[in-house]
Structure prediction request, 91 residues.
Amino acid sequence: NKGGYRCERDDAGPQRLIDVLHAVDGMVVLCGYASELYSQLEVAGWQRFDTEARISGGRGTSIRTEVVWLNPACRASLERARGDLFSEGSA
Prediction:
């Protein structure tokens, strides 16, 4: 088990995932690490949020940048909810 996970994905896996995610009509939140491949999501209108997180493994702890992507449907829903939640007169 060279990568530390029970199941490692093949090199084509991330591209298949992106293709499937582009076809989803509903809301999608994807968490992971930035890569050139995942930058395709941003070009397609997904919103990206970066955060620093402490990770630990067999070689000690370190800090990595983790990323959360929201697809356009999820972004739109959040914007509508925030508008309703924080607009004047809503209570």
Remarks:
- The radius of gyration is 17 Å.
